[in-house]
């Protein structure tokens, strides 16, 4: 079945999650949909599977425009979605899960269903006991159960949303074999992922999304660095910026190891000096966030030590790090930064230095007004955090930073911001170098990394696989490393 | 008419209309029960001479409901469903009873000590819910509910066990407390000016807490978004415990008032379910302190007045509960409807803005 999406728009409040997406999936192909977290992939697939309805646009199936008001409509039309967390009811057994979504009244023919289940499992080489409780299945087996169930319901387009999260390498290769077999039988498969190497392994065609838009399409195989370029954008010329003398080491990591996942192979040692800017590059979830959490005291390393401005803070908690003038701004501005329902004034009071019992609202309001003005926040001191646009939320977060900081840790400082706001944010950040603040930031924007960092650390599957001098490197080199190849083996 | 007043009047109108309809179907003159509830709680015509005793009772039912509501505003603002408030009232009553039974002191001092004991009892019981939540990871609803049952069991044990009336094993309660331990009351009624003053002070205190103090603002921040509050450097667990302690202390004073100001002894159903009623009051008051005063008085009127229905009309006195429940349900529906309309409105404005931009 061929599938076509025409000019799909979907917005959540001011956020345009899908901004005019058009996409064609030919019958019997494995089509990759690649993009960073937040690129709009999941939204698009939710529209396609009937979970959300699009604001505008059209879904065309075998040349016919169809209406998708609910998941029921989608499955009736032959579109089946395998969610990131398989929709399996753990207390039920396998066969009950299998028949659960089937159409048609209250009649339940377990025997017939079991027979058909066995046939389907046979055909694809799955080995699932229909009487087993679903909670005993591995995540991989749950996916198999879901796939079989969707096939049984007549799915001819199969969507898989990040299906390899949480399954073993072995299960993954088995899944890929199944998907290839399905494609040969004429199934159209949409494989949604932010993992480059998987899309490269599996797909015949790939569409790349960024910021709610399609930014590229390619017939596979193409070299991974080309996909990286599509995902992260071409770097424009890097402008010179005033250099700042680097002072003493503000952040010093020695022989850091963590228990789970990140930095597992060799211990990490790193020094970031006063006024230095270090950028963290890599696919999302490659270990950057764990790294920042260790630097901020949100998480303790298994071994090794962390020093801030010469003081050993190993094993201390986040509040001790905060007291040592370390501040961490995660990516989720409304989730882990601002507080919905509170006004700008209240935010400044919370972030302020006042330690009295009563709040002097008159004074607080004046101070907030001055800050709103100074940081050109579009809103008033009485605006609530959620009423601000992303750029203004970021301005508010920066305005709330204490005047003195040793280390500033940030995730995606300019994600979702327009160019003007992004420039403004960096102006503020770079100004902090003058007073000796060290900045460590993670970004998915190669241009931003090259433009503002002194050094760039590249993360790949939980490890730091490269440390580059920002002045001496280029997009291609970073792209190779992000894709998991070292520079020398890149040609191989 | 402000939206706030509308939010309050609309549900009351709904409940009156639906009750009248219900009673009409039951074949009773709808006006009678309403009049009997008013007559039974504040007299008919209201505040007539000779109704002092009824009014005293209603006020002393208002006291625990309003105190518990004031406490719940604190925990709700901290983002916690303190269902354990019943248990906190009960343990407060137990602690006050203990003080009343064991300490001998001149009246003003003993009354003061019973109140302090009640507050501490409730506070510790609330703290326990908080510790289960923050350290043990037990959801406060389940922890609180579990501790409610424990508190009831302790009361029953005390009444038929160590504190049983001399020579009688009865579940009707302990011996009456000595006079010196009772809340001083007004001319032969239960009405205690001290209880009223404490209640109003508690409501005022909660209002000031969220209106003007840094502590209150931080509590609100913890309730609205714990990760953000934590990243701002607020010790979130400590604030959660603080909220449970404040609420528990107020609930404990409510329990004290029940024991030493209403029943004058410890009885098995000492809480009167006023903790659960207070949850409804706070939902109806939308977490604003001052609205607690009239709304809890209204609930107290229904609670006291409904007991007349059995005697006078051969209607079950549970009608009072039906009234209170309908009231809250219609208020919640009203709020849901208002929120739905606001969302629709925002969406429409949003797409209009988008259209204008393109």
Report the portion of residues of chain A in β strands.
Answer: 15-25%
CATH architecture of chain B: Orthogonal Bundle
Domain module tally of chain B: 1
Which sequence of strands runs across the widest sheet of chain A? 6-7-8-3-9-10
What is the SS-derived class of chain B? mainly alpha
Question: Total number of β-strand segments of chain B?
Answer: 0
CATH superfamily of the largest domain in chain A: P-loop containing nucleotide triphosphate hydrolases
How do the SSEs of chain B run, as a string of H and E? HHHHHHHHHHHHHH
CATH T-level fold name of chain B? ABC transporter involved in vitamin B12 uptake, BtuC
Helix run count of chain A: 16
Detail the poorly predicted runs of chain A: 487-492
What's the shape of chain B? globular
Helical content class of chain A: 25-40%
Tell me roughly what share of residues is in helical segments of chain B. Answer: over 70%
| CATH topology tier name of the largest domain in chain A | Rossmann fold
What's the β-strand tally of chain A? Answer: 20
Rg of Cα set of chain B? 22 Å
* Continuous helix count of chain B: 14
Task: Write up what this structure looks like.
- The complex is a heterodimer of chains A (492) and B (358).
- Chain A is an alpha/beta fold and 492 residues long.
- Chain A has helices spanning 41-48, 71-76, 94-100, 110-124, 139-152, 169-184, 196-202, 224-232, 288-296, 318-323, 344-351, 361-374, 390-399, 419-434, 446-452, 475-482, and strands at 3-12, 15-25, 30-34, 56-61, 64-66, 79-82, 157-161, 188-193, 205-210, 213-219, 249-257, 268-273, 277-281, 303-308, 311-312, 326-329, 407-411, 438-442, 455-460, 463-469.
- Chain A has three domains: 3-222, Rossmann fold (3-Layer(aba) Sandwich), CATH 3.40.50; 231-325 and 403-492, P-loop containing nucleotide triphosphate hydrolases (Rossmann fold, 3-Layer(aba) Sandwich), CATH 3.40.50.300; 339-401, no CATH class.
- Helix content of chain A is 33%, strand content 24%.
- In chain A, the strands form four sheets. In chain A, strands 6-7-8-3-9-10 form a six-stranded mixed sheet, with helices on both faces. A six-stranded mixed sheet of chain A has the order 16-17-18-13-19-20, with helices on both faces. A four-stranded antiparallel sheet of chain A has the order 2-1-4-5, covered by helices on one side.
- In chain A, strand 14 and strand 15 (311-312) form a beta hairpin.
- In chain A, helix 11 crosses helix 12 (361-374).
- Chain B has one domain (29-314): ABC transporter involved in vitamin B12 uptake, BtuC, CATH 1.10.3470.
- By secondary structure, chain B is mainly α.
- The chains are: A alpha/beta (492), B mainly alpha (358).
- Chains A and B meet through helix 10 and helix 11 of A and helix 8, helix 9 and helix 14 of B.
